Amino acid sequence: MSMEMTAWNSLYHVMNQQDDKRPFSLATLRRIARFAQPHRAALTGFLLLSVVTAGLAVATPVLAGRIVDAIVGGGTTRLVTGLAVVIAVIALVESGLGLIQRRLSAGIGEGLILDLRTAVFDHVQRMPIAFFTRTRTGALVSRLNNDVIGAQRAFSDTLSGVVGNLVTLLLTLIVMIGLSWQITLLALLLLPVFVLPARRMGGRLAQLEREAATHNAAMNTQMTERFSAPGATLVKLYGRPGAESAEFAARARRVKDIGVRTAMSQMVFFTALTTVSALAIALVYGLGGFYALRGRLEPGAVVALAILLTRLYAPLTSLASARVEAMSALVSFERVFEVLDLEPLIEERPDAGDLPDGPVSVEFDAVRFAYPAADRVSLASLEEVASLDTRGGVDVLHEVSFRAEPGQMIALVGSSGAGKSTIASLLPRLYDPDQGAVRLAGVDVRDLTFTALRRTLGVVTQDGHLFHESVRANLLLADPSATEEDLWDALRRAFVADLVAALPDGLDTVVGERGYRLSGGERQRLTIARLLLAKPRVVVLDEATAHLDSTSELAVQAALGEALAGRTAVVIAHRLSTVRAADLILVVEAGHIVERGTHTELLAAGGRYEELYRTQFQQHPQEEASDQPA
Description:
Layout: H1 3-15, H2 26-36, H3 40-72, H4 77-125, H5 129-134, H6 137-179, H7 181-189, H8 191-226, H9 229-237, H10 241-293, H11 299-320, H12 322-340, E1 362-370, H13 374-377, H14 380-383, E2 395-404, E3 409-414, H15 420-426, E4 435-440, E5 443-444, H16 450-456, E6 457-460, H17 471-476, H18 484-493, H19 497-502, H20 520-534, E7 538-542, H21 550-564, E8 568-572, E9 584-589, E10 592-597, H22 599-605, H23 608-619, H24 621-627
Parallel strand pairs: 3-8, 3-9, 6-7, 7-8
Antiparallel strand pairs: 1-2, 1-4, 4-5, 9-10
Helix pairs in contact: 1-8, 1-10, 1-11, 3-4, 3-6, 3-11, 4-6, 6-7, 6-11, 6-12, 8-10, 10-11, 18-20, 20-21, 22-23
């Protein structure tokens, strides 16, 4: 490595270090070792090759010095040629070993990334909905990307660097001391002149890099939020494109200014260190030449010492930053393990079973429920707050009991925030009750496998969420084995087949982020088609028509009629006109069921339902008129 490369290497290490004084965590190291276990053979080979290549790197300067001695001392052509061939062979061997070492390094690093990413992804999928409602998505994605890659560097860069540099340093010192202890001592005395400017300028450059990273992160956040369909719509509706552009330009301009300052600081640093390097080499040649002329040192030793000098500073500066690099890697591992250590609130029991075939009843038996506190489901670093919200643990459902017989429709109505959606979320085990039981066909849902639960239960939410994928891919979430005929049959039954057929690529048309290329009614009918494809025996409808216009609502209602036919259903409705035909209507207020009965019975009772009904239909008298007998 040249002195110029040594200068850049020193700059890189100092710029990327963080002042972290925490001690090494033995528990973290043990967990890292477990992740490294599958790569043990490759890791051993990689470290051995690091030792061998370090030794070969020291051999070349020594052989170069021998050639100079042979030339000056009148050696034979055969000797000089032989030494040159050995140097060439070493170079070829180094190149070959470097390729093998790189292959092993890539395999270990990418394998570790694969293991960590899949572990985090699988674990996150097991987390309760409360986790996702609190966590900032970008912070979570960062754990899967930046922190996982930072952890990977512990093996591909830091570990091999420490081993290789340590061996190179020891061998170089041994050889240099053997050639001339005086020049070696001089080289070591010059080391502070080489390293101290790097640390001083490196800290300044690191601060600039962190500031640039902060502004870049802010720009990324702004672009992510404003380039989404809802964000772009909001900006346009409030007429703020100019203000948004000015805000973005200010951040971009700051990044530009930092970039110019960084480039100039790097150049000043590089120029200073290469000048120091040139002076160091000049001193080696001067003192070495003086000793050579006095007969106290061979000419070849002077050349060897000058070359070895470059191999002395590089590992010394790298090893000086080794602890910092190791701590940075440990921090990345700890951030990954922090997510893995969050215990999922919803787990499948070891003895969980399946549900028998046939009709399914739904039963809530004295259910009490409180949303979990933040410290049970989240991390402050994932929410990007200083400390977690301490609220939680207050019951939102109180002794909720009801039963839907197979094939019956149960409707939940009441004020916003009364607990209707909370009741619905306990059926698919998005949460578990704190007391009481939720049963399907008489079996507690906690005693069912997740597969059995998903196969039995189908849910249509009010937002009709679709992934940014094709219509086909969104439908196949329900049944990956579905045929083309199955897909079109589900679309026809959901009254959306004509729409899909008219799309540019039919089933292979990409629907856009969250399905925004489609209208709300069209998205909702596609989600109903997805539900029909799943063939559930129990259907939960959570405000499925809440945000639709009258025309879209009629189309969705027709599709829902197909979805509900012959199935047990729990329907949450804001519009009471949609639940008149329910077998049982439950009025929920403040987590209590305050009334229950049919539409006619509840109207006659003159209670809360009748109040909700009259209030709603004062605003829509035509719906009330359509409800009256002819």
